[in-house]
Amino acid sequence: MEANKRQLEVKLDHECIYVFERKEEMAPSKFRRKVWQILPSISTLMCLPFGIMLGWPSPTYPTLIQPGAPVWISMDQSAMIAGFLMIGNTVSTPFSSIQRIGAKYGIIIGASLITIGWIVMWQARDVFWLLGSRFLIGAGNGFGTGQVKLYINEICQDSLAQTMAKQINLYVFLGVFLAFSYGPFVDFRNFSIITSIISVLVLFLAIFLPSTPRELVKSGKMTEARKLIAFLSPDLSVSEEIVKIKERINAPDNSISFCDLVKKESLRKNFAIFACLVFFQQFSGAPATVVYSQMIFEKAHCPRPEMCALVYSLMFLIANFYGIFCVPSHNKKYVLLFSSIGVSVLLVLNIIVLVEEANVHFWQFTSLVILLLYILVHVVGLGTVPFLLIPELFPKEVNKIMVQFLIMSNSMFALIITKIFQVLLTNFGLVTPLCLFLTVSTFSIIFVIIFVPSKSNNKSNNT
Predict the structure, then answer these.
(1) Which of 3, 289, 325, 368 is the most exposed place for a label (fewest CB within 10 A)?
(2) Under 8 Å between Cβ of 386 and 406
């Protein structure tokens, strides 16, 4: 009996070792899991064609306003065409948090709208085609961006998801740079064809994105869901994660609506501060200078305005990269104050340069240098900080509605200031809209000093 017992123990030990070794052999490496989590972040590429359309007006308008253009437009129509991208973005943003269809299929819908929009632009015959194209692309981005965020949060671990989510804006600004890079050197049709190809490739990649654990559980594919969770998070209990996913699916939405936000006295003041910061962000001029950058450098008598605009877009990209990854570690109020003062000083210098015609009599690139510093200082402060202040000014259950408000108000304010800039530029020249920007940025200095808190007051909001 004793001998048989020992043999049985040895046999069990060998079987346990064999099973352990097989698990080790079958378990994916940590590097492989990280790579697998990063690959689905290609969903953020959906924002690239939108960014190209965002930068499309600057290299395209100088051609389209000329007689004999493939699609002729007037200068008055240019701001309206630019604004339809923002209208589409605004209209679709409230629907971007819908989870009923699944994040993957939401991304496919957004990418499809963007692709159709670029094909419409390629086939454009008159201004109404341009309006329809811009609206479709804006709508695709407004809806798809929210779905991309949902997808990343469902497929990636929290630490990685935060980094991946930051790529969304970077791809938008990279798209702007690409538009400035090849836009001046190809005609209207070829510009649209190139970007249509990019959009089709992004749509193709979106179709082959893997489903998230939430989508698999919701569709009843429990075996696949368990395998995916075990692969992504081998240190966690698969059963517990399945239970948590089911609870999240069935849990009611505790987010506060916009009406509830306005009703709460403790949140109204912070909302007013936030709304004013968004106003200062847009009306201090950055959106209009990006849309009309090539025309601005041409009117400022800078040589090779298309190359000046390209350098301007590169600085815009670099400044946003710094703002997204580096500014969060700084004191937000001090960054805003530095940005508001810097923007005001640089606008004053640029007005003096234009009035004294320094680009003609002194140095041809004076306005270029000043505008490069302007967009740098603007983006790292006024352009970035309002978004970073959301978790500091508001409790967690308000974050979703405030992000949507930021996107929608940004789009509408950008539309309005772009139209105002176009009217002032056409009727009074370049100095007048710069004076308007200077007035707004000067008021922003006073506002930041008086109303923006130095530290987070989120604790008081939560109580």
Answers:
(1) 3
(2) yes
Helices 57-64 and 305-325 meet at what angle, rounded to 10? 160
C-alpha closest to that of 333 among 449, 458, 461:
449
The angle at the Cα of 143, spanning 220 to 394, to the nearest 5 degrees, equals 95
pLDDT of residue 360: 85
Q: What parts of the chain have a pLDDT lower than 70?
A: 1-41, 158-159, 253-254, 455-463
Reported as half-sphere exposure (CB side, CA atoms, 13 A), residue 376 has a value of 12
User: What tokens does 95 get?
Assistant: 């629907």
CA distance 290 to 338: 22
Report how far residue 184's alpha carbon sits from residue 204's, in angstroms, rounded to the nearest whole number. Answer: 28
pLDDT in tens, 276-322: 999 999 999 999 999 999 999 999 999 999 999 999 999 999 999 99
- Using CA atoms, how far apart are residues 115 and 150, in angstroms rounded to an integer? 21
- Give the pLDDT of residue 10: 40
Predicted pLDDT of residue 241: 77
On whether the CB atoms of residues 43 and 107 are closer than 8 A, the answer is yes
Q: Answer yes or no: are the C-beta atoms of 106 and 147 closer than 8 Å.
A: yes
Q: What is the DSSP letter of 151?
A: H
Residue 150 in contact with residue 46, Cβ under 8 Å?
A: no
